[in-house]
Amino acid sequence: MSNKLLLSLFCGCGSFDHGFSSAGFKIGLALDLSRDAVESYNVNRNSRVAEVCDLHRTKAKAVVERCIQVSKTKTFSGVIGGAPCQSFSHGNVHKRVNDIRHSLPKAFASVTRAMKLQYGIDFFVFENVTGLCSGKHEKVFDGFKADLRRHFTISETILDAVDYGVPQRRPRLFVVGINKQKYPQQEFKFPCRSLKKQKTVRDAISKLPAPTISIAGTFSRASQYHPNHRAMAPKSRRFFNGTLHEGNASGRSFRVLSWDKPSWTVAYGNREVHVHPSGKRRLSVLEAMILQGFPKTYKLCGTLSSQIRQVSDAVPNQVGYAIAKALKQQLYST
Question: Using CA atoms, how far apart are residues 68 and 232, in angstroms rounded to an integer?
């Protein structure tokens, strides 16, 4: 597999890709619209494999041409990624009919088809929120699969990150396609749960030191423990009057985590980061990263808001690793 590469679309800061790399795959090119996410991706790999690209406006042909430029003597074996998913989320109460994110699964399918025709790729892996396969978005999802069924045998399921060692409940839709011509009898079998006991918030972050507090409009010093161990300064009186109790789930803005349970889904809109179990402050970026499954050595670039967005958009690397390992066993073990 050393001469085969993966193309990563909507790569974000690279958590999903980290899982595939840990399983032995090599990323040949990674694309994302966010400059901060691309910088984070490259900083953590000491390479420039990730590039800024607006996949909504970029033609599939141009993506393939860029792959040809970077691959040299190697070839591509797969396409992975998950389009930005907020427009399909059950929690998105401000849906817009003309939201360009509705077209991004189609962009993923278009590039994947082009990569199949150019390289004969073996597979693709697509991730999104479970809302994409609900009634409201059924037409978009069915169209996405129809665009790819001619070339790939498609399997789909919902996997929860908590079943793969991530201290967070995060059910997400995964779609895997296997090249029909190369593997005519092969239908992908999703990996089984890897853990019997779920990891908790206590397991993940209880031993961390106190974070640096960032005050809006000021440049706060970086934490000596980790550059992302920064938290927003608590402003609401609820942080000081004792009303935020551990496990409080009322309202979206002030959900307090429980020490001895997994975190709720790490997906923070408008910087509504979950409250630390102490009830005294919101989580630091590093704490959110760890609950999202990032290695403690991982570092994120950009403003505090950008870092929070990067964490929210990430796919836990442990889930990526489980899928990648299953693909290796099912396609390349013989």
Answer: 44
Q: Are strands 123-128 and 26-32 parallel, antiparallel or unpaired?
A: unpaired
Return the closest-CA partner of residue 278 out of 226, 334, 205, 217.
Answer: 205
Please provide the DSSP assignment of 178-229 as one string. Answer: EETTT-TT----PPPPS-SS---HHHHHTTPPPPEEEPTTS-PPPPSS-TT-
Please report whether residue 18 resides in a domain: yes
- 227 in a domain, yes or no? no
Virtual torsion, Cα 118, 119, 125, 129, nearest 10 deg: -20
Strand blocks (E) in 211-314: 212-214, 230-232
Q: Phi-psi region for residue 232, left (φ > 0), alpha (ψ -120 to 50) or beta? A: beta
Q: Cβ contacts of residue 68 below 8 Å, gap of 6+?
A: 118
pLDDT value of position 39: 98
Residue 132 lies in a domain: yes
φ, ψ for residue 157, nearest 5 deg: -165, 175
3-state secondary structure of 327: helix
Give the chain's length.
334
C-beta separation of 29 from 5 below 8 A: yes
> Nearest to residue 45, comparing CAs of 303, 297, 287, 290?
297
Q: Are strands 152-160 and 171-179 parallel, antiparallel or unpaired?
A: antiparallel
**pTM as predicted:** 0.93
Full domain range(s) for residue 55: 4-195+314-332
CB burial of 67-82 (b: ≥16 within 10 Å; e: otherwise) equals beeebeeeebbbbbbb
pLDDT tens column, 216-267: 655 566 678 999 999 999 999 999 999 999 999 878 899 999 999 999 999 9
Q: CATH code at 326?
A: 3.40.50.150
Q: What is the pLDDT of residues 302-327, one digit of tens each?
A: 999 999 999 999 999 999 999 999 99
How many folded domains does the chain comprise? 1
CA distance 258 to 318: 22
- Is residue 108 a part of any domain in this protein? yes
